Amino acid sequence: MMGKTGVGKSTSGNTILGQEVFQKETSSKSVTRECKKATEIVDNKEITVVDTPGWCDADLSDEELIKEAFKCIDMSYPGPHVFLLILAIGRFTEEEKEAVEKIQEVFGENAIKYTMILFTRGDDLEDKSIDEYIREAEVDLKAVVDMCGGRYHVFNNRDKSHQQVSALIQKIQNMVRDNNGQYFSNKTYEILGEHKKTQGDLQQQMQAAEQEKDINIAEFQRMMEVFDQEMQQLKLRESQLQEQLRSLETKNTDRISCMRTELEKQKNREETLKQQFSLKEAELKSINEKHNHRMDEKLQRLHMENQNILTKIQELQLKQHQPFSKAALNNIRCNIS
């Protein structure tokens, strides 16, 4: 559901789903500042509605609005079957014209064949039918209706009967049938989706490498603890042997020699442990260097992938003669990063 602030998008979403799921308020400021999604069973069909911020909300920058537009496509993956352009019964203002232009700019001209106008405040028609209202409408409004293939419906959100919702769903089904059952898609979004998957795979690999590094560090710390314990035991034993050597030095020369030999062995063992520790330390250093090298290669690959994605998007937009605004391109770069 798209349209300017205050035309009744959230209220219409509640009417369609038959539940108070979207916050609504009579105000000139938008209550909905980010996309919101809700799903209910309506006429034995699973209906998902995505409510969007006001497309002319002064509190939202163009960058924030475009970011939410990308988000609403993700929330309706693999793509929406219909864009409901919400307009209120009454004068068709410059602000509403601007909202229609922004929608075309962000989603492209291809989105028009998936767009249907939903008029709110149908009770303002009084005894006039919606068809008569369209016939008597000003030129700009008629042009928008024609642009949408003459597809429109009207809601009286004060009316709690379900008939108006069933009629809307039937019109949407007819439009989907005319579109061969397809949902709205855009090559740009498909490329971004593939990039996100690649980016996710690389992030998983990097996480696995980080976990391996953490395991190696934990193993090294465990070995350090064992080494410290053995060193303490060796020093204690050395101290005991030296004490025994001093007491026996004057009594038994042969025994003194044996004690000195044993002491020498202990010293040799201590030296061996030090060498083993040095080798293990060098091995861990080598593992860390290899890990950092793999991380550098993966980061470089991700950077090259990002550059390729940007190039593909720009080439695609040039081929379609639908260049993105500067704000849209900046937002795409942010998504990729």
Largest sheet: 3 strands, parallel
CATH superfamily of the largest domain: P-loop containing nucleotide triphosphate hydrolases
Distance between the termini: 28 Å
Give me the CATH fold name of the largest domain: Rossmann fold
Q: What is the CATH C level class of the largest domain, in words?
A: Alpha Beta
Number of strands: 5
The number of distinct helices, counting runs of at least 4 residues, comes to: 9
Helix fraction bin: 55-70%
- Write the CATH architecture name of the largest domain: 3-Layer(aba) Sandwich
Order of helices and strands: HEEHEHEHHEHHHH
Principal-axes shape call: rod-shaped
State the strand order across the main sheet.
Answer: 3-4-5
Taking all residues together, what is the mean pLDDT?
Answer: 81
Topology:
Layout: H1 9-17, E1 36-42, E2 45-51, H2 62-75, E3 83-88, H3 94-107, E4 115-120, H4 130-135, H5 139-147, E5 152-154, H6 163-178, H7 187-248, H8 253-319, H9 326-336
Parallel strand pairs: 3-4, 4-5
Antiparallel strand pairs: 1-2
In short:
This protein is mainly alpha-helical. The protein has helices at residues 9-17, 62-75, 94-107, 130-135, 139-147, 163-178, 187-248, 253-319, 326-336; strands at 36-42, 45-51, 83-88, 115-120, 152-154. Helix 2 crosses helix 9 and helix 7 (187-248) packs antiparallel against helix 8 (253-319).
